[in-house]
Amino acid sequence: xxxxxxxxxxxxxxxxxxxxxxxxxxxxxxxxxxxxxxxxxxxxxxxxxxxxxxxxxxxxxxxxxxxxxxxxxxxxxxxxxxxxxxxxxxxxxxxxxxxxxxxxxxxxxxxxxxxxxxxxxxxxxxxxxxxxxxxxxxxxxxxxxxxxxxxxxxxxxxxxxxxxxxxxxxxxxxxxxxxxxxxxxxxxxxxxxxxxxxxx
Length: 200
Hints:
With about 200 residues, the protein is of the alpha+beta class. A four-stranded antiparallel β-sheet has the order 1-2-3-4. It is elongated, with a radius of gyration of 24 Å. The chain has one domain. The N terminus and C terminus are likely disordered.
């Protein structure tokens, strides 16, 4: 009994069924194509999960560490935790304590950048494991610092580097995420220039 006239069957599945009935018993190119399409679908879903998990985990880590600093350290008070030099600093500028006093301008900028990133993901332009890692980190960093600016008028920085720069987990996510995105874009373009592989 066939339900072909009742339920629409995807073309790839029709080809798969036709190849499955091959008399030779050797998988045809339709069988291989169906398998590739299935793996691509699963890979896209896995990439999406990776993006959301990484963004949520790093955003939570950023907000929890900042809350601990605000609760346990006064402004400009220093301490050391697990070998990390920490100082409670209210940053009214950009990442890394630059452009002090202009923090209010970074909220709309962050919103625009986030909109571009999320739209690019929706259009499928940022769908690879490196891109998901980079965009996940970048989104976590941008949202983390935007929350601080909206709620506290400035970003809570606490990780002190030898050069005198004070940062936080969101700053690290922004910088690392951007580096990963740029590297992924560079190698993605090189790969796109290679000849495509075809099924026999």
